[in-house]
Write a structure and sequence with these properties.
The complex is a heterodimer of chains A (113) and B (114). Chain A is mostly beta strands and 113 residues long. Helix content of chain A is 0%, strand content 57%. Chain A is built from no helices and eleven strands. In chain A, strands 2, 4, 5, 9, 10 and 11 form a six-stranded mixed beta sheet that branches. In chain A, strands 1-3-8-7-6 form a five-stranded antiparallel beta sheet, with no helix packed on it. Chain B has no helices and eleven strands. In chain B, a hairpin with a 6-residue loop joins strand 9 and strand 10. At the A-B interface, strand 5 and strand 10 of A face strand 5, strand 9 and strand 10 of B.
């Protein structure tokens, strides 16, 4: 049972445009969400996170939006750059101090020059 | 960000042998370390959580006698795949964290069992 879903395996955008990566979750006990970026043969790198008490968190070109009622979050990258090309993983963490991260399958983003 | 080093980056071993993978936090003391496994085009699946000086907590379906985890110090955790078989071939990734910080990941180890 996939508790964190990234339904788009891939996304291609033009340099300078906005990239929007989506993530849905089913477990209402999740209260903290993270986005990781991963290059081939490397471990994931933390990008940005959001707590369930917020609906938006922004860090430079990266913004994460959370819609709790829809159990949906999205990562916006603007403007997109070729160096952003990577696989992006959405992850969620539960309540009660649990440190366990549940990951989606990832979305491969390609930013074309 | 903090640095987590995983070694080796890739390893090929014969079926039936054991392989040890090391995970080190280089510039911080990790209270908790995690081991993940990733199959091609799949998500990272948590295998176990380990705290320094205590036994690892394994996820459901992960054989603790096959995947031995030792968290000997605040900067080192090891994963030993015992009696490896071809189906154990995968990408293994560790992460480490301090209290109240995000987890930082190692670069991963590609294990191929032949």
């Amino acid at each position: 049972d996939q508790q964190v879903k990234q339904n788009s395996p891939s996304l291609s955008v033009q340099e300078g445009r906005i990239s929007i990566l989506n993530c849905d979750y089913t477990n209402s006990m999740f209260d903290y969400f993270l986005w990781y970026k991963k290059y081939p043969a490397e471990g994931p790198t933390f990008l940005i996170s959001i707590s369930s008490i917020k609906d938006k968190n922004e860090d430079g070109r990266f913004t994460v939006f959370l819609n709790k009622s829809a159990k949906h979050l999205s990562l916006h990258i603007v403007p997109s750059q070729p160096g952003d090309s990577a696989v992006y993983f959405c992850a969620a963490k539960g309540q009660g101090g649990s440190e366990k991260l549940v990951f989606g399958k990832g979305t491969k983003l390609t930013v074309n020059p | 960000g903090a640095v987590v080093s995983q070694h080796p980056s890739w390893v090929i071993c014969k079926s039936g042998t054991s392989v040890k993978i090391e995970c080190r936090s280089l510039d911080f003391q990790a209270t908790t370390m995690f081991w993940y496994r990733q199959f091609p085009k799949q998500s990272l699946m948590l295998m176990a959580t380990s705290n320094e000086g205590s036994k690892a907590t394994y996820e459901q379906g992960v054989e603790k006698d096959k995947f031995l985890i030792n968290h000997a110090s605040l900067t080192l955790s090891t994963l030993t795949v015992t009696s490896a078989h071809p189906e154990d071939s995968s990408f293994y990734i560790c992460s480490a964290k301090q209290a109240n910080t995000e987890a930082f990941f190692g670069q991963g180890t590609r294990l191929t069992v032949v």
